[in-house]
Design goal:
single chain; two-stranded antiparallel sheet
Length: 92
């Protein structure tokens, strides 16, 4: 083989390596973004449920827009969490 052919083979191997590296980085970045979007969506759902609890009249089990009626345990139960015996909040 001539020097030019060896140089082209080395250049081809380098280009393929760079392309594979860029592909892996793009895939991991997309997985990270997907997880971030899922967390943001879930937090928005919890915020909407908490706001719904705040607006619901106290006779129906909500806070009725009164700060004294806000109870974290009831709010957690309303959103879907339960308190375990070890005082750790768990999602149901």
């Amino acid at each position: 083989m001539g020097l030019q052919q060896i140089l082209l083979v080395v250049l081809g191997v380098i280009l393929v390596g760079v392309a594979i590296t860029v592909g892996i980085l793009m895939f991991s970045n997309q997985a990270y973004r997907s997880n971030v979007n899922a967390l943001v969506s879930e937090m928005n759902e919890f915020a909407a449920l908490a706001f719904q609890y705040w607006k619901m009249p106290s006779t129906m089990g909500g806070a009725g827009q009164v700060e004294d009626f806000v109870d974290m345990e009831y709010l957690a139960n309303y959103i879907g969490f339960t308190a375990a015996d070890s005082k750790v909040v768990m999602i149901t």
